[in-house]
Specification:
By secondary structure, the protein is an alpha+beta fold. It has two domains: about 60 residues, Inhibitor of vertebrate lysozyme, Ivy; about 60 residues, 3-Layer(aba) Sandwich (Inhibitor of vertebrate lysozyme, Ivy). Helix content is about 30%, strand content about 35%. It has a nine-stranded antiparallel sheet with strand order 1-2-3-4-5-6-7-8-9.
Length: about 140
Amino acid sequence: MKKQILTLAAAILLSGAAAFAQNGMTKFEQLPAKSQEFIKTYFKDYKVSYILADREFADVDYKVRFEDGTEIEFNAKGEWTDVSGKQKCIPTDFILTEITEYVNTVHKDLCITDVEREFNRITVELSNNLEIEFNSKGKVISYDD
């Protein structure tokens, strides 16, 4: 009985170590095709510093960091979930036109430094740290400063 418990414990530890070992640095070619295309389209002039793969159960999330500090997070489907310029302006061609037009009209002296997409909401952070939350159609839901 003691041997069986030790064998089971060792198997659990080894499987946990194997899962942990799968987390970490990865290559551009290992990103989902959708993520690769996103980067090639909207961040083609940026140089990748590193890419991290975070495996949790059946899903894999990715974080791409560029040399200038900009980061993009992708879900397992290869869809962007967060783009952060770390207080620097980011490209906005991938953001809903309604959102970028609103920001350019109402906050014309500011730029978007971060955008996060969750379910049916998109939150942008502007260069003055003001956050604006939009619905999935680009309509303003709330402001947070």
